[in-house]
């Protein structure tokens, strides 16, 4: 088993199509089939099932890819790190972001990378659920900025900020007053929640209460926003995410009476992954941008780092 075979296998797994995988690998289809056959003979198991619409991975292929993907990422990082000039950042970086983080700094991050790091290839994945964060970091992503990640021993996480969550909805749904809303009144409202909750807030017991009362669950922040604007309900959300609608008056927010309902933003990476100049530079850039949003007043949050 060599790096060429692993690369070809990963291409077929990701493309689910032999001809596209061959084109991506700059090989003929017969050469790709030959490499796959060698792997199947070495492991004594079938890796793909040929179907009319492409190649379907077997359970063995799924297991193999979970091991192969991080190996190939590490090999690419090594090659790029050794080739680059000491004073010039080059290569690929993949960053996962919660929807609120993408809303806050996504455009600025893209502009900054294009302007300051012309030799960097940037990939961004939005809305990573906490339940799959570890697997995403192992296979597709170098860094992730997420709220309240689960405590995995393989995960290295650094707290960045703490944000108070509020009741967000149309004034005719949640009331036009600025007075805090009592928790029981909030729970009695037609609640809309993100379907893949994970650890949305710091208080797990409160999260369970809110989830139990939710009338609608949607796996899309865009769709949740549309549903709230249409008057179908309200949500426990971020003032920053809905800042434009709140300033325009189409949506309103009310704090929730009692102890603050908060969530904590972390920057995460794999604990056993060797640090690279790319990861260190991008991590510092992400933190700098978050701090700028806090200082400018666009993100009402408490920094947990020196800004």
UniProtKB/TrEMBL annotation:
Gene3D superfamilies: 3.40.190.290, Winged helix-like DNA-binding domain superfamily/Winged helix DNA-binding domain (1.10.10.10). It comes from the Bacteria. Residues 1-58 form the HTH lysR-type domain. The keyword NAD does not apply. GO terms for biological process: regulation of DNA-templated transcription initiation. InterPro entries: LysR_HTH_N (IPR000847), LysR_subst-bd (IPR005119), WH-like_DNA-bd_sf (IPR036388), WH_DNA-bd_sf (IPR036390). PROSITE patterns: HTH_LYSR (PS50931). The keyword Transcription regulation applies. Keywords: Activator, DNA-binding, Transcription, Transcription regulation. GO terms for molecular function: DNA binding; DNA-binding transcription factor activity. Belongs to the LysR transcriptional regulatory family. This is Transcriptional regulator. It comes from Candidimonas nitroreducens.
């Amino acid at each position: 088993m060599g790096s060429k075979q692993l690369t070809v296998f990963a291409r077929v797994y990701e493309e689910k199509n032999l001809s596209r995988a061959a084109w991506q690998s700059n090989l003929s289809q017969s050469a790709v089939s030959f490499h796959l056959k060698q792997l199947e003979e070495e492991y004594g198991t079938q890796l793909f099932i040929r179907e009319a619409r492409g190649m379907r991975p077997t359970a063995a292929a799924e297991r193999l890819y979970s091991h192969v993907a991080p190996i190939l990422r590490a090999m690419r990082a090594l090659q790029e790190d050794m080739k680059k000039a000491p004073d010039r950042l080059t290569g690929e970086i993949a960053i996962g972001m919660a929807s609120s983080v993408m809303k806050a700094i996504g455009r600025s991050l893209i502009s900054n990378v294009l302007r300051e790091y012309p030799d960097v290839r940037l990939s961004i994945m939005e809305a990573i659920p906490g339940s799959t964060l570890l697997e995403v970091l192992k296979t597709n992503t170098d860094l992730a900025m997420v709220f309240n990640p689960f405590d995995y021993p393989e995960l290295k996480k650094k707290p960045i900020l703490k944000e108070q969550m509020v009741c967000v909805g149309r004034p005719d749904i949640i009331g036009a007053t600025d007075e805090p809303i009592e928790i029981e009144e909030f729970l009695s409202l037609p609640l809309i929640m993100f379907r893949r909750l994970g650890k949305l807030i710091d208080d797990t017991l409160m999260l369970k209460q809110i989830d139990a009362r939710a009338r609608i669950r949607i796996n899309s922040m865009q769709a949740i926003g549309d549903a709230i604007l249409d008057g179908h309900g309200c949500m426990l959300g971020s003032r920053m995410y809905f800042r434009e609608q709140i300033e325009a008056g189409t949506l309103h927010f009310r704090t929730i009476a009692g102890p603050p309902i908060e969530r904590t933003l972390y920057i995460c990476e794999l604990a056993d992954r060797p640090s690279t100049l790319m990861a260190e530079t991008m991590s510092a850039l992400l933190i700098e941008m978050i701090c700028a949003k806090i200082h400018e007043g666009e993100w009402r949050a408490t920094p947990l780092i020196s800004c």
